[in-house]
Amino acid sequence: MLVFGTRPEAIKMAPVVKQLEKEPDLTPIVVVTGQHREMLQQVLDAFQLQPDYDLKIMHQNQTLTMITNKVLAGLDEILNQEKPALLLVHGDTTTTMAASLSAFYHHVPIGHVEAGLRTWNLAAPFPEEANRQLTDDLTTLYFAPTPPSRENLLKENHPAKQIFVTGNTAIDALHYTVNQDYHHEILSKIPDDHHIILLTMHRRENQGAPMEEVFKAVRDVASQRSQIDVVYPVHLSPRVQEVAHRIFDGAANVHLINPLDVLDFHNLAARSYFIMTDSGGVQEEAPSLNKPVLVLRDATERPEGVTAGTLKVVGTDYQRVKAAMEELLNDPQEYKQMAEAKNPYGDGHAAERIGQICHDYLTK
Ligand code: UD1
Ligand code: UDP
Q: Which secondary-structure segment (H or E) carries 73?
């Protein structure tokens, strides 16, 4: 059984679902919690996934307690009925943590895709750092995307023989989506010789003042340069929408658009000059697309990208964000170094490895 509920989990679990469907001895059951609604549906449509169960839990401005309660209650019935041999979760959302707790209560072993990411700071990202640590405490099969994430798990005394370095399934997903002939209506509005800066920002700990600072820096840099266009697909959270519209409405070369489906987002990322984001998944995808990323957070659980040189952690301070944007726009050498760094997140065959390990675990 695979359980996921938000956009990024769905994107990175889609290649695993497709792979398990090919395994002759296994029957995957897909359960979506519906922690996200529209943003999840976009991914299900793009990958043509048909969930077997949908808990439909999303509520406007939902709290963490609401999500946890509803996932636990909804999965209880399904686990009683289906009695799966293994339950796979992904990453660090509240769906992930609550589904893992539910599996544990039902004595179902857990496979954690994207295990071992850490900032070691429970406040950042909040609540994801706690979600991933709690999930790893309950996990049987650890699918670590990189050697450093394996090291993190070993430091916490998780058993070495249960940890597998697989690569990140985000890279597998890119193989389904990126297309040379891509066109989107937003591109018709932007002259070919303009640089596109792709922006996304949504994290709970950035909502409010940090988000305002970043948006003001972006707005001010954009207002001084007619040759750039900022494209920002705004997350549907009302807490994000409000700040984005308050700061950017009226800015001529900042385009606020609805969340893009994953085909559009990956292709627009491939066409961008650089990316600014507090997203986790986008930090993993950008190095494969040779795009520099300014990370709008104080800490990242993806240090591999920083070491490789493709990610720069700039935080949310107005002056720092502005300076980092200007450096990338003014300094071709700096730009080239970041754009040409080697992708550390794998070869795009992570789902095959995960499928094989699940197969071996379940059939031996
Ligand atoms: C969640 C995850 C976060 C992940 C992010 C990916 C938790 C605690 N947070 O944060 O780790 O990075 O998803 O995007 O698990 N909404 C809609 N339609 C949608 C999706 C969201 O209207 O399709 C609105 C709803 O009002 C919802 C709000 O956004 O209540 C927040 O959604 P929620 O899943 O609680 O938090 P995210 O910030 O999306
Ligand atoms: N993404 C998307 N449409 C958008 C913005 C992002 O499909 O408008 C994709 C992106 O390519 C990445 C994932 O969504 O795969 C990241 O999701 P998000 O930033 O919501 O969550 P995080 O990764 O921070 O948990």
A: helix 64-82
Catalytic annotation on 114?
yes
Q: Tell whether the torsion through CA atoms of 17, 19, 21 and 26 is positive or negative.
A: negative
Q: Could you confirm whether 92 is annotated as catalytic?
A: yes
pLDDT at 272: 96
Query: Which residue is closest in CA terms to ligand 2's atom 17?
Result: 8
- Fold match between 2-167+349-363 and 185-339? yes
Listed by start position, the domains of the chain span: 2-167+349-363, 185-339
267's tokens: 């292709």
Cβ-Cβ contacts under 8 Å for 83 (sequence gap 6 or more): 106, 108
For 287, other C-beta atoms within 10 Å of its C-beta total 26
Question: Is 195 assigned a catalytic role?
Answer: no
Cα–Cα distance measured from residue 71 to residue 335, given in angstroms and rounded to the nearest whole number: 44
**Closest of 258, 254, 163, 247 to residue 211, by C-alpha:** 247
Q: Is 136 exposed, middle or buried (0-12, 13-18, 19+ CB in 10 A)?
A: buried
Residue 220 annotated in active site: no
Q: List per-block mean pLDDT (blocks of 10 residues) for the chain, which spans 364 residues.
A: 98 98 94 98 96 98 98 97 98 98 98 97 96 98 98 98 98 87 85 95 96 98 96 97 97 96 93 97 94 95 94 98 98 96 94 97 92
Cα separation, 71 vs 27, whole angstroms: 22
Spatial strand order in the sheet of 110-113:
53-54, 30-32, 2-4, 87-90, 110-113, 141-144, 163-165
Domain 2-167+349-363, CATH: 3.40.50.2000
User: Given the structure tokens 């940890």, which residue do they identify?
Assistant: 163
255 SS3 class: strand
* pLDDT, position 182: 81
Of 9, 128, 264, 301, the catalytic one is 128
Q: Whose CA is nearest to atom 3 of ligand 2?
A: 260
Nearest to 28 by CA among 76, 79, 85: 85
pTM for this model (two decimals): 0.96
Q: Which of 6, 38, 60 to mutate to test the pocket of ligand 1 (most atoms within 8 A of CB)?
A: 6
To the question of domain 185-339 being in CATH 3.40.50.2000, the answer is: yes
